[in-house]
Automatic annotation (TrEMBL):
This is Phosphoribosyl isomerase A. Involved in both the histidine and tryptophan biosynthetic pathways. HAMAP family: HisA (MF_01014). It comes from the Bacteria. Belongs to the HisA/HisF family. The gene is priA. It comes from Streptomyces endophyticus. It is an enzyme of class 5 (isomerase). It catalyses: N-(5-phospho-beta-D-ribosyl)anthranilate = 1-(2-carboxyphenylamino)-1-deoxy-D-ribulose 5-phosphate; 1-(5-phospho-beta-D-ribosyl)-5-[(5-phospho-beta-D-ribosylamino)methylideneamino]imidazole-4-carboxamide = 5-[(5-phospho-1-deoxy-D-ribulos-1-ylimino)methylamino]-1-(5-phospho-beta-D-ribosyl)imidazole-4-carboxamide. Pathway: Amino-acid biosynthesis; L-histidine biosynthesis; L-histidine from 5-phospho-alpha-D-ribose 1-diphosphate: step 4/9; Amino-acid biosynthesis; L-tryptophan biosynthesis; L-tryptophan from chorismate: step 3/5. It is found in: Cytoplasm. One of its GO terms (molecular function) is 1-(5-phosphoribosyl)-5-[(5-phosphoribosylamino)methylideneamino]imidazole-4-carboxamide isomerase activity. The keyword Nucleotide-binding does not apply.
Length: 245
């Protein structure tokens, strides 16, 4: 993170399952609520002033296929920055993800199961690679958050030493629940790394975003917002205004 940054970045989320924009609860397959066209959703966030889009291929994450063509279409239609996540685990899926023009890609499972490959792509692609640390308690979860993948802080130490440039931290217990972010987890991760952290999961109100903003001096750079926007708890314009000072 640059020393001058003091405003929390917001990344509205578009999670894609079977061609539709959906929200999950706790990231569980089968808990989907559908919100229609992913492209329409993404364009709506862009029109509302988003500077970032967090775009997730849930089928690729769960291993139930993929939405590659649609993800590419959405990413390429954006004038704003795109963070792409879901099922990026090998050279082929990484090449497809980078070819969408995404600003950065988020590696989850592979960071737990294939450390050598992840060290290699971090060395090759630098800050185009973020690592998603998806946790229950302090246990990481991979394969669409369905399998345990080791200890959060041990993995963080390894990734720090490999030069990982950014972490996207999700408390799975909070994700899609509108129960508020896990601020303690975010504080703890910031204490364990000097790399920027993007918060994810649980945002329910403008006060939650203000509370995450308070963590910017500790290293929290941004916050993903999903369910709260789709449930109309607030508008993206209101959220951007809330974090603008
Ligand atoms: O990002 C992934 O790879 C992923 C894999 C499996 C299940 C869910 C996954 N991502 C979900 C998200 O990134 C959510 O969009 C995000 O955490 C927003 O959460 P919320 O604001 O609580 O809806």
């Amino acid at each position: 993170m640059t020393a001058t940054q003091n405003k929390l970045e917001l990344l509205p989320a578009v999670d894609v399952r079977d061609g539709q924009a959906v929200r999950l609860v706790h990231g569980e397959s089968g808990s989907e609520t559908s919100y229609g066209s992913p492209l329409e959703a993404a364009l709506a966030w862009q029109r509302s002033g988003a500077e970032w889009l967090h775009l997730v291929d849930l089928d690729a994450a769960f291993g139930t296929g993929d939405n590659r063509a649609l993800i590419r279409e959405v990413s390429q239609a954006m004038d704003i920055k795109v963070e792409l996540s879901g099922g990026i685990r090998d050279d082929d899926s990484l090449a497809a993800a980078l070819a969408t023009g995404a600003t950065r890609v988020n590696i989850g499972t592979a960071a737990l199961e294939d450390p050598e490959w992840v060290a290699k792509i971090i060395a090759e692609h630098g800050d185009k690679i973020a690592v998603g640390l998806d946790v229950r308690g302090t246990t990481l979860r991979g394969r669409g958050w369905t399998r345990d993948g080791g200890d959060l802080y041990e993995t963080l130490e390894r990734l720090n030493s490999e030069g990982c440039s950014r972490y996207v931290v999700t408390d799975i217990a909070k994700d899609g629940t509108l129960q508020g972010p896990n601020l303690e987890l975010l504080r703890n991760v910031c204490s364990a790394t000097d790399r920027p952290v993007v918060a994810s999961g649980g945002v329910s109100s403008l006060d939650d975003l203000r509370a995450i903003s308070e963590l910017v001096p500790l290293g929290v750079e941004g916050s993903i917002v999903g369910k709260a926007l789709y449930a109309k708890a607030f508008t993206l314009e209101e959220a951007l205004e809330a974090v603008s000072r």
